[in-house]
Amino acid sequence: xxxxxxxxxxxxxxxxxxxxxxxxxxxxxxxxxxxxxxxxxxxxxxxxxxxxxxxxxxxxxxxxxxxxxxxxxxxxxxxxxxxxxxxxxxxxxxxxxxxxxxxxxxxxxxxxxxxxxxxxxxxxxxxxxxxxxxxxxxxxxxxxxxxxxxxxxxxxxxxxxxxxxxxxxxxxxxxxxxxxxxxxxxxxxxxxxxxx
Length: 196
Description:
This protein is an alpha+beta fold. The chain has ten helices and five strands; from the N terminus they run H-H-E-H-E-E-H-H-H-H-H-E-E-H-H. The strands form two sheets. It has a three-stranded antiparallel beta sheet. A two-stranded antiparallel sheet has the order 4-5. The protein is globular.
């Protein structure tokens, strides 16, 4: 994070839902990415449904009944299209996602994530696909168990580090722009309304 952004964040309410959406989910809110995770205290996430109502940006609770909740924030149309690409759909099928229906896949990844949180299974690394990570990076992470990556930023890169560096820099700029917009009194909704 730039010093400018850190200085702005020091003057903002860090627990604010809009601030956390800007920090954690700017790439999806601005239309650059299909999904992001939003991790917040349960009490601070109140109003998320109302805030995202009426647009393509949606939320899916991955960890219900916990004080610290994990949401998948996603652009429904873009995520659905991404999951239907041959490379991603084949990989999901190989990882045990037999039902191709969009919401069934969300239910399955939620089940797997919940089982991970309960200590009953390994982390479902295919969650990266729901966040729009390239399939080759998800495969690389699984095959190499998180080691031997070529670059590390928003995720560990196994395929194309130069492309990833450019993409990660764009994500950083989107986050800075979103935080500044919220700091200036703009609503989160106005940020993603412009992107749709």
